[in-house]
Amino acid sequence: MSEASLLNDPDFRVPGASRGLFDVFRHRYLLTLLLKKGVATRYHGSVLGWVWSYVRPGAQFLMYYLVIGVILQADHGMSFFPVYLFAGIVAVNLFSETLRNTTNAVVDNASLIKKIYLPRELFPVAATGVALVHFLPQAALLFIVALLCGWTFGWLQIVAFVIGTLIIVLFALGLGLFFGAINVAYRDARNFVDLILMFSTWASPVLYVWNLVYDRAPLWLYHVYMSNPITGAVELFHDAFWLPLEPSIARPDNFLVYVLIGFAISLVTLMIGQIVFRKMEGSFAQSL
């Protein structure tokens, strides 16, 4: 068969060709293996193992609560400020771990990428799955704390929690695909991600309330702030676990509009990240 007829054969596919994130669904078994590997090696050789999934957010919460709530007394008059604070910390931790894992996913699997071909998107998607697995203990701890404080189950709260988690995952995965591809050729990308993560806690209402931004920032800056996907996700976590405990607290006007904008930004970020990733993945093996 000639080369021309071979290329016109509908069953012929160029070796190494990828359909992007759609290929992840076609290689679910490989994704499962990578996910199991990531979970198994996370705390390999650690004495405490999975206990660290509880210790780290607990220590982070304790530090912020002592400084913000006790020393500075900036609890904003909330009776359940610990729940408000912990809900925001859990949301931001999911974003931080997902973005950090996906940014390093390709480089961390350099030995495998240089030996065989498989859809490169499997690595950041598996890294996202690992972040979600380690997010579950934190979410469970938040759920228990909220219950002990008098939180009652409601479907609206569950929906808010799920949507908030989805926004964080989509946004972090999109950024991770973008910076993960750049990180293969330029390791500066990892340092840039560290800067994003450093500001992420302060650029969303985790340690303070949204009213402070509304009262002190220009209106245009407030709109930008509220349109931030992480801000919307953190507020959805607050709606899920903290607002039922303090229903009299005022919520942002047009909050649903901001959530929809944040969700749209997350989708656009995912699309841009996928485009950049696909354009650069052909040189991953050589660069690594």
TrEMBL record:
This is Transport permease protein. InterPro entries: ABC2_TM, ABC2_TM_bact-type. PROSITE patterns: ABC_TM2. Its main location: membrane. The keyword Transport applies. Pfam families: ABC2_membrane. It comes from the Bacteria. Keywords: Cell inner membrane, Cell membrane, Membrane, Transmembrane, Transmembrane helix, Transport. It is found in: Cell inner membrane; Cell membrane. It is a multi-pass membrane protein. It comes from Leucobacter alluvii. Residues 48-280 form the ABC transmembrane type-2 domain. The keyword Membrane applies. Belongs to the ABC-2 integral membrane protein family. The chain crosses the membrane at residues 62-95, 122-148, 154-180, 192-213, 255-277.
